[in-house]
Write a structure and sequence with these properties.
Blueprint (H helix, E strand, L loop, with lengths): L15 H4 L2 H15 L5 H11 L5 H4 L3 H20 L2 H39 L12
């Protein structure tokens, strides 16, 4: 990835106001990460890097003329390709997208369960009076 380690990162919670759904927010963040790798050219690499680093909000970034123009060009190419597909091909791609979102939802639910189990097991291992958090000084 093009971002430096230790640089602030935008997470899904900051994209939720746009997507309204955690799985969609994860997919959006992952898409921004791909753009930040430069797969769609320098302008969109810069756009995604700025958004992911938190230097500019996504809603504000799309209003920057250079970024907006690059997104429109990419959207036009997507629209042209989509128009060439048959209805059956479109349905297959839509079903693939649905499966991707369902997979993200399962992945996120499993991560939440694992985190909850770790918190619970951590509480069970420590006695109530283990001496942590107390100091006479």
């Amino acid at each position: 990835m093009s971002q430096q380690d230790g640089e602030p990162r935008v997470d899904e919670s900051e994209l939720m106001d746009i997507t309204g759904d955690p799985a969609h927010a994860r997919v959006l963040r992952e898409s921004l990460e791909k753009l930040a790798d430069g797969v769609a050219g320098e302008t969109l690499r810069e756009f995604a890097t700025e958004v992911l680093a938190g230097r500019v909000a996504l809603r504000d970034a799309v209003r920057v003329p250079a970024y907006g123009d690059a997104l429109v060009v990419g959207g036009r190419a997507f629209h042209d390709e989509w128009s060439r597909l048959s209805e059956a091909e479109r349905q297959l791609l839509a079903a693939e997208g649905d499966r991707l979102l369902e997979s993200k939802e399962r992945e996120m639910a499993a991560a939440r369960r694992t985190a909850a189990e770790r918190r619970q097991s951590g509480r069970q291992r420590r006695s109530r009076h283990d001496g942590r958090g107390w100091s006479p000084y």
